[in-house]
Amino acid sequence: MPALSRRTFLSTSIATATTLGLAPALHAATAPSAAQAVLKRFLGRDAARIRLSLDPSGALPWYATTTTGGQVTIRGNSPVALTHGA
Predict the structure, then answer these.
(1) Which domains, from first to last, does the chain contain?
(2) Which one, 7, 12, 15, 69, has least CB within 10 Å?
(3) How many CB atoms lie within 10 A of CB 48?
C-alpha cells in the first residue's frame, strides 16, 4: 500500500470533518419534507392539513400531536417519529 502524503491526509480529514459537521443540519432540513412525502403518499391531499416540526431533543424517539382550529401539528425528533405521530 502506498504511503499517504501529508497533503492528501489533511485534505481528506478536512473534507470528512466538514461533511460530518454539516450532517445534522442537512438532516434537519430534509427530515420534515421526507416525512411530509410519506404522508402525501398515504393521505393524498389531506396531508396538507398536517404541519410537521422537527425537534431533535431527547435520546429516545418521541412525538407529540396537537390540534388547533382544524390544523394538526406533529412534533418529533426524527422523520420516523413524525410519520408515527400521524
Answers:
(1) 6-85 (3.30.379.10)
(2) 69
(3) 11
Residue position matching grid coordinates 499517504: 4
Kindly give, in sequence order, each residue whose CB lies less than 8 Å from that of residue 84, ignoring residues fewer than 6 positions away.
61, 63, 76
Q: How far apart are CA 44 and CA 58, in angstroms?
A: 31
1: helix, strand or coil = coil
Other Cβ atoms closer than 10 A to 51: 14
Name all contacts of 25-28 with Cβ < 8 Å and 24+ positions apart.
Answer: 28/54, 28/56
15-25 tens-digit pLDDT: 554 554 444 54
How far the first Cα of the chain sits from its last, in Å, is 52
Cα–Cα dist 60/43, whole Å = 27
By CB neighbour count within 10 A (0-12 exposed, 13-18 middle, 19+ buried), where does 52 fall?
A: buried
